[in-house]
């Protein structure tokens, strides 16, 4: 990620953290993203949720209709990336 985009990502995170309700966050996300982007975000959430619950990658692929490579990227993030720290706080196994 370029430096400018990293700065923008921090700004977006700050905006979301200041919103007062889940509905405000949902409306912000819907206003910012296309329906396809929302769908992709939901798939990514479900993918991580299923990985955290111990589901096999092939089962996740079939259930969500996503590629094994997408699941592998999610798994790598869970094991080695920043997700290693944050996902256990969000996803209760």
Q: Which properties best describe this structure?
A:
93 residues, 2 domains, mainly alpha
Q: Give the termini separation.
A: 30 Å
Which class of secondary structure composition applies to the elements?
A: mainly alpha
Number of H/I helices: 6
What is the C-alpha radius of gyration, as a whole number of Å? 15 Å
Account of the 3D structure:
- This protein is mainly alpha-helical and 93 residues long.
- It folds into two domains: 32 residues, no CATH class; 60 residues.
- Helix 3 crosses helix 5 and helix 5 crosses helix 6.
- The model has no long low-confidence stretch (mean pLDDT 93).
Layout of strands and helices, then pairs:
Elements (H helix, E strand, L loop, with lengths): L2 H16 L3 H11 L2 H18 L4 H8 L3 H13 L2 H8 L3
Helix pairs in contact: 3-5, 5-6
Task: Summarize, please.
The chain is built from six helices and no strands. The protein has helices at residues 3-18, 22-32, 35-52, 57-64, 68-80, 83-90.
């Amino acid at each position: 990620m370029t430096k400018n985009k990293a700065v923008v990502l921090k700004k977006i995170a700050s905006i979301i953290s200041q919103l007062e309700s889940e509905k405000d966050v949902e409306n912000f996300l819907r206003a910012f993203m296309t329906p396809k982007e929302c769908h992709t975000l939901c798939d990514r959430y479900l993918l991580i949720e299923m990985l955290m619950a111990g589901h096999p990658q092939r089962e996740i692929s079939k259930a969500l209709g996503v590629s094994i490579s997408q699941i592998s990227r999610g798994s790598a993030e869970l094991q080695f990336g920043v997700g290693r720290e944050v996902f256990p706080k969000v996803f209760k196994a």
